[in-house]
Amino acid sequence: NLFRSSFGCTRCHEGIERETPSTPRGPFSHDVHLRGGYDCDVCHGVEQQEHNTTAREARSCATCHPTAEQVRRMNPSDCLRCHQAEVTVKSEQVRFPHAQHTTYGCGLCHLKVVELDHIAFLQLQKKAGFDHKACETCHARDLPLKARAVRSVM
């Protein structure tokens, strides 16, 4: 299912969702952004005189992907403008009410989120995954004895 730009960009740039060009901040996934509901005008100039301008020239990536300094000044509610709070943790052992945990700040569970630019953090998360050991910070007594014994050996 090919992406269709409401600006007509895909008449010439058909299949752009499969393109992942290199940028100074790392690879840019058109697919991720287009599936997220963004059209070409979010990053690119779509008017005749702006044609071929990119985020580096037209708009900054930091508009949507904050720097580490900007993230440190954000409240969890700022993060929730783009990220949904109803994220489920893939585990058969726990239920995770994400919305209840946002009061502690995103950095409690999402380690390094306040240390890295948002794009670098997202790339790290894709490689490293999520570390559930952070749960033990507050919930060590809630873990079954068997799970605690296994964790102490690690």
What is the gist of this entry?
Strand 1 and strand 2 form a beta hairpin. Helices cover 28% and strands 3% of the residues.
Structural write-up:
The chain is 28% helix and 3% strand. With 154 residues, the chain is an all-alpha fold. Strand 1 and strand 2 (26-27) form a beta hairpin. The chain is elongated, with a radius of gyration of 20 Å.
List the helices and strands and how they pair.
Elements: E1 22-23, E2 26-27, H1 30-35, H2 68-72, H3 76-79, H4 98-101, H5 118-128, H6 136-139, H7 145-153
Antiparallel strand pairs: 1-2
Query: What's the story with the biggest beta sheet?
Result: 2 strands, antiparallel
Based on CA atoms alone, the radius of gyration comes out at: 20 Å
Q: What's the total count of β strands?
A: 2
* Fraction of residues in β-strands: under 5%
Proportion in helices:
25-40%
The sequence of SSEs as H and E is: EEHHHHHHH
- Walk across the major sheet and give the strand order: 1-2
Give the number of helices.
7
Mean pLDDT: 76
Which secondary-structure class do the elements indicate?
mainly alpha
Q: Using the alpha-carbon principal axes, give the shape.
A: elongated
Distance between the termini: 45 Å
Note poorly predicted spans.
Answer: 148-154
Question: What are the main properties of this structure?
Answer:
single chain; two-stranded antiparallel ribbon; mainly alpha; 7 helices; disordered C terminus; about 150 residues
